[in-house]
Design goal:
The complex is a heterodimer. In chain A, 27% of the residues lie in helices and 28% in strands. Chain A is an alpha/beta fold. In chain A, helix 5 runs parallel beside helix 8. Chain B has 6 helices and 13 strands. The radius of gyration of chain B is 21 Å and the shape is globular. Classes of the chains: A alpha/beta, B alpha/beta.
């Protein structure tokens, strides 16, 4: 038996979340004496693929045919099913990303395998197979018992320790038998902002709320983000007002993120916002209202006006960086 | 053409989440129930598409898996502008169960466009739409933030990391809807509320579907320690704490 991990990359670079998925699978494999096999779809160099071995992948299957250049949910789920059959995989691990959410549910029905979506920790028990997952928009977790032999897990960020566990690896270039005519979607245009730090991949996220007063006053936040190599996010009122694009909205109906450090500036901390950032490791809140709910979620807080504090904070970080 | 919108009945998004004493059940005391926020956006877009279609889209149907207590939420969808509704009379156990029930209930009616909200605000599994598409053996597109119909061609935009893709797709298909699909969800007008009372709401018995998962216990996140306050003048101190204590920078 084996555990198959669908590993995502961006422009040929394997994502941090994908390494975590491999580490997650390795943690399961150790407990049920199984082996971790990674599947990569798209053009990724062998040298990059071999990095997956550091986290416990014994074998990497690489599919690079042009038919797989764009995500088609039917084509991809059939491909993964085919590989799972070849490799005798009874457990499939995905990142709980846009791509994972697009494919894993289809595969679950195809394989008649239970799906645990949004796992927040490695399984707490292997018999019965029990996994803790995020629910109620991050306000709670539910422990789910899997009743089928085959299972699919999509993991949230920061759901396990990304432990190094180097193993020898073989890389196999694979030509799928799946009929590419099952793909019915046809991508006409791709519009990607080059160089933008992805919120779902960023270690540090700087986020602004209504306290930033208007869309043209974002400069100090942008400066802070650039200094920290951070992604930029916002609360819902900000994107609803059109101050910032929707893809920067984190919260219940926006993006769910789990950075190591989240700096919330002028965000009051409504429960809907917290739902999107509850996986954050360390939270800093800057708000002029000392009673703002955000301070009951934050680890560090400063009460004061954002436009007064941000320039000082930027100076302090500059000083720290140059020290 | 016909549009189907999958509808979840969920606790209002400001609900304080509590469980019974042995943590096996969500405590529904005093909870207000609403249309799942993403489903509400999907429904709004479905109604807009019907209005813009010049009669080509004959109707918008909503489907829900739930017991009788989800009917006020279904009526609200009818008041917003859905034409009719189907309620599958079963507790919504998990995503697989819900998708299998909906597939059974709608397969004979052949909807051209099916909308499902990307996730529910209670279970958050983001799975029903994809599972339903696989049960029906039709294409699906996830993270959809725009659906337009131009000269009978279906043009969808989906969010990818760092941007968007525009794609076309033949009917029938499932579009899994996220934020951005419409500006604001519609709210029912008085006329809509009156009309909703007489719109058809069909209740069908559930199919026999085997459960793939079982709920064990719920957990609340560990309580946060107190927030360490730093003087507004002393941003050096914050940087020091983030570096030496939190090891975050």
């Amino acid at each position: 038996m084996s555990i198959l991990v669908f590993t995502e990359h961006r422009n040929g670079k394997i994502k941090k979340h994908a390494f975590e998925a491999v580490a997650y699978a390795a943690a399961i494999a150790k407990n049920i004496s199984s082996q971790v096999i990674a599947l990569s779809v798209g053009k990724v160099e062998e040298q990059e693929l071999s990095l997956l071995a550091a986290y416990g992948a014994h074998k990497v299957i690489s599919v690079t045919q042009d038919a797989y250049n764009y995500l088609d949910n039917q084509l991809y789920s059939q491909l993964i099913h085919e590989v799972a059959q070849n490799e005798n995989s009874d457990c499939i691990v995905f990142c709980n990303s846009n791509t994972g959410k697009a494919i894993a549910p289809r595969l679950s029905v195809r394989m008649k395998a239970a799906l645990v979506a949004g796992a927040a920790a490695i399984p707490s028990s292997f018999n019965p197979f029990t996994v803790k997952r995020r629910s109620y928009n991050g306000s709670a977790f539910s422990n789910v018992i899997v009743k089928s032999d085959e299972k699919i897990i999509t993991i949230n960020q920061n759901s396990c320790e990304v432990a190094e566990n180097p193993v020898p690896v073989s890389i196999e270039q694979y030509t799928p038998k799946t009929d590419v005519a099952v793909a019915k979607t046809s991508v006409k245009n791709v519009d990607v902002v080059a160089g933008k730090i992805l919120l779902t991949e960023a270690g540090i996220v700087v986020s602004g709320g209504r306290g930033m007063k208007s869309g043209d006053q974002w400069k100090p936040l942008e400066e802070l983000a650039e200094l920290l190599g951070a992604g930029i996010a916002c609360s819902r009122p900000v994107s609803d007002e059109g101050w910032r694009p929707h893809d920067e909205h984190v919260g219940q109906t926006g993006k769910i993120i789990a950075p190591d450090l989240y700096i919330a500036v002028g965000i009051s901390g409504a429960i809907q916002h917290i739902g999107g950032v509850s996986g954050t490791k360390i939270m800093v809140a800057i708000n002029k209202d000392k009673d703002a709910p955000i301070f009951s979620y934050a680890d560090y807080g400063i009460v004061g006006d954002a436009f007064d504090i941000l320039p000082r904070l930027i100076d302090s970080i500059r000083k720290f960086k140059s020290a | 053409m016909k549009i189907l919108v999958c509808l979840g009945n969920v606790p209002d998004t400001t609900t304080k989440i509590r469980f019974n004493s042995d943590m096996t059940r969500f405590d529904v005391t005093g909870v207000q129930w609403v249309i799942n926020p993403w489903d509400e956006l999907a429904l709004t877009r479905a109604i807009e598409l019907k209005e813009q279609s010049g009669g080509k889209i004959e109707k918008v149907t909503v489907v829900n898996v739930g017991k009788i207590d989800s009917e006020p939420t279904i009526r609200k969808a009818l008041a917003i502008g859905a034409d009719d509704a189907v309620r599958i009379d079963a507790d919504a156990a998990d995503s697989y169960f819900i998708a299998a029930q909906i597939a059974e209930a709608v397969k004979s009616e052949k909807f051209d466009i099916i909308f499902a909200g990307i996730e529910s605000s209670d279970y958050n599994a983001a799975s029903v739409g994809g599972m339903l598409a696989e049960f029906l053996d039709i294409p699906s597109v996830s993270s959809v933030s725009s659906v337009e119909i131009t000269n009978d061609e279906m043009i969808l935009k989906r969010e990818i990391e760092g941007g968007k893709e525009t794609l076309t797709i033949p009917t029938p298909f499932v579009a899994i809807i996220q934020k951005g699909i419409c500006i604001n969800p519609r709210i029912p007008a008085m006329r809509g509320i009156m009309m909703a009372r007489t719109k058809p709401l069909t209740v069908v018995p559930p199919a026999d579907i085997q459960l793939m998962t079982e709920m064990s216990v719920f957990e609340l996140p560990p309580a946060k320690g107190t927030c360490k306050m730093v003087d507004a003048e002393d941003t050096d101190k914050l940087v020091d704490l983030l570096h030496n204590e939190a090891k975050a920078i």
